[in-house]
Fold:
Amino acid sequence: MKNRLIFIEGTVGSGKSTTCNWLMSKFGSSVESLSIYPEPVPISTNSDYLFGEAKAMRYPHPGGDWEISQWDGVVESMIESRLKKVRAFTAQCLEQKGYSILDGGLFHRDLDALFMLGMSRHDIIEHLSEFVEVMKELDPVVIYLNHPDVRSSLNEIHQKRGDLWHQGETAYFVDSPYGISNGHKGFSGYVDIYKELKDLHFTFMD
Structure:
């Protein structure tokens, strides 16, 4: 197996976590030196969220507050954190000489946040290129679960996770700096933003 690092990617509701859970049940005990990482993966800034009474969070997260002043300089901080984490993770993988499968981490959630904060498509592509370059010795590959209908996939995950999750997730996208500046509102706005994100994913992979 040449590819020692595999990203399971796709939009919300495409089946990333389901696929990782299936791989764990199928191969977890039979493939030597195989590590499968559910969300949040070790190269994600998800693990850096700080929740407190003052709602202080270092990075954006569903359910958080998009007060603009709160996010000054956070794009640069997120990029620095992501690169630091991926360098450490790559070194760890090279030392262990094993195989790793990640539930997201390349695109999902961190990339959403950078996009929502207004980082340009060009700059995101440049960041992803640098991100992948750090991991090149692991020959990373992306398995992209391409659900053909974004609206349908988001509706399906809404049914599974309930109204509270759905409301928080929708607000996270449409109430973001990007969502507001582009006039996105409600569930339809959420769908439109995810279509844009999906297009960005494929632009990078092409």
